[in-house]
Design brief:
Protein disulfide isomerase family A member 5, 22% strand, protein disulfide isomerase activity, Thioredoxin_CS, alpha/beta, 4 domains, 15 helices, Glutaredoxin, 479 residues, globular, PDI
């Protein structure tokens, strides 16, 4: 055992003979993390240790490789180690137990050249005759994660002609590299020929085909024309500011105001409908009101005064006073129809966790303890605004109802949009919504990637319960 006062891993093994190779690996890991982590092992085949393994619900024989690896942090169970059983991956995990897995652990990334040090980078650029496309990235970067599958596919398809490489340069030790190649954000993708940097590749939504096409004729990114602010475009929407807002609202008895942000996709989608409605109202002799807009990223005092937290937000003002917030008005027809007969909007639908269902809603502080009470738990990590989540919620809820009488099964949910759950969702590997994780007595087993309907969710659980019954029957036969 190699021990210290930081974090610890407990490794549960079957009889020692079967664990020999694993012990050699763990000894190497222990040397690498000395002073930062603890490596321990327990032989579950030993008479003395068998009771402890049983008490902790550990059964290495249930694992294909015959080894169960658990991580403990601050004296409590943290998570099951489910990454690659290699020196590099285990050391990376112990240095940052809540960080993302190494990119090279993804089997689809086998044709990416993974660079770990400045020395390796210099060697690659010096010795490689083929053109090199290098992605400098950070493990937490969402844009990087979304681009990686296309980048991996391109690496496989272009193998032998080009080298596609990746390097995690988030650490402070790589400041010199970041300065040299102008890495100001992630990802930064650089193109090299014969070791010389030539261009940046800036199509972060590129497909594998896009990457291949660009590599045929690599060139510097074309400068993009700045987007014209909505207020500077020709339209009949009144664009208000912190300075003139109050006077305008007082001078007009009926005003619908759209608070927006230039980068907001939903705002851009709604803008043409809003402009068409404004044109209709502007031309009408008996117009029921006017339409205005506020760029909340520029006019921050107004955004703060009216508690704008999402975009677009529509507010209706009558005789100078705020009266309603109207989330349901998104088309020209709905806007005009509503202004002709202004009524209070229907009350917002209760949040999922406020409804009476068989889904257990968890938060950071009670997450692990709640999961430990159930043998099989499928957890849905979601955000209330996510369309795919909204589609899945009714099916997930119905599946939970099907198994509500089974004391060993639970369907649970975590709202990742809540600040209190941010760290938990990151820790559990959530990088998109919805994410479904399966846990066995609180230990992560696998991600659920099946069909997101009631049938998919229930079939998954039925399969697990059938396996339970088969194991019980097998034990009875052995007795």
């Amino acid at each position: 055992m190699c021990s210290n006062n930081a974090v610890g891993d407990l490794f549960f093994f079957p009889p020692a003979a079967a664990a020999e190779s694993s012990l050699r690996l763990l000894s190497s890991v222990a040397q690498e993390v000395k002073g930062r982590g603890t490596i321990s092992w327990i032989d579950c085949g030993d008479t003395e240790s068998r009771k402890l393994c049983k008490k902790m619900k550990v059964d290495p024989n249930s694992k294909e490789e015959g080894v169960e690896l658990l991580h403990y942090k601050d004296g409590a169970f943290h998570t099951e180690y489910n990454r690659a059983v290699t020196l590099k991956s285990m050391v990376a995990f112990l240095k940052d137990p809540e960080g993302a897995p190494l990119w090279e652990e993804d089997p689809e990334a086998k044709d990416i050249v993974h660079i770990d040090s400045e020395k390796e980078l210099r060697r690659l650029l010096k010795k490689e005759d083929k053109p090199v496309l290098m992605m400098f990235y950070a493990p937490w970067c969402g844009v990087c994660k979304r681009m990686m599958p296309s980048y991996q596919q391109a690496a496989t398809e272009l193998k032998g002609k080009y080298v596609l490489a990746g390097m995690n340069v988030y650490s402070a030790e790589f400041e010199r590299i970041k300065e040299e190649y102008n890495v100001r954000g992630y990802p930064t993708i650089c193109y090299f020929e014969k070791g010389k940097f030539l261009f940046h590749f800036e199509n972060y939504g590129a497909t594998a085909a896009d990457i291949a096409e660009w590599l045929k004729n690599p060139q510097a990114p074309q400068p993009q024309a700045p987007e014209t602010p909505w207020a500077d475009e020709e339209n009949v929407v009144y664009h208000l500011t912190d300075e003139d807002f109050d006077k305008f609202i007082k001078d007009h008895s009926s005003v619908l105001v759209m608070f927006h942000a230039p980068w907001c996709g939903h705002c851009k989608k709604m803008k043409p409908e809003y402009e068409k409605a404004a044109e209709f109202l502007h031309a009408a002799s008996d117009s029921p009101g006017v339409l205005a807009a506020v760029d909340a990223t520029v006019n921050k005092a107004l955004a703060e005064r009216y508690h704008i937290s999402g975009f677009p937000t529509l507010k209706y003002f009558k005789d100078g006073e705020e009266k309603y917030t109207l989330p349901h008005l998104r088309t020209k027809k709905k806007i005009i129809d509503w202004l002709q007969n202004p009524e209070a909007p229907p009350p917002p639908e209760p949040a999922w966790e406020e409804k009476q269902t068989s889904v257990i809603h968890l938060a950071g502080e009670d997450f692990r303890e709640s999961l430990k009470k159930k043998k099989h738990t499928l957890v849905m990590f979601y955000a209330p605004w996510c369309p795919h989540c909204k589609n899945a919620i009714p099916h997930f809820t119905t599946a939970a109802e099907v198994f509500k009488e089974d004391r060993k099964i639970a369907y649970a949910a975590v709202d990742c949009a809540k600040e209190q759950n941010h760290d938990l969702c990151k820790q559990e590997g959530v990088d998109g919504y919805p994410t479904f994780n399966y846990y066995n007595y609180g230990k992560f087993v696998e991600k659920y990637t099946g069909e997101r309907g009631e049938s998919g969710f229930t079939t998954f659980m039925r399969t697990l319960r059938e396996r339970d019954h088969e194991r019980v029957g097998k034990k009875k036969d052995e007795l």
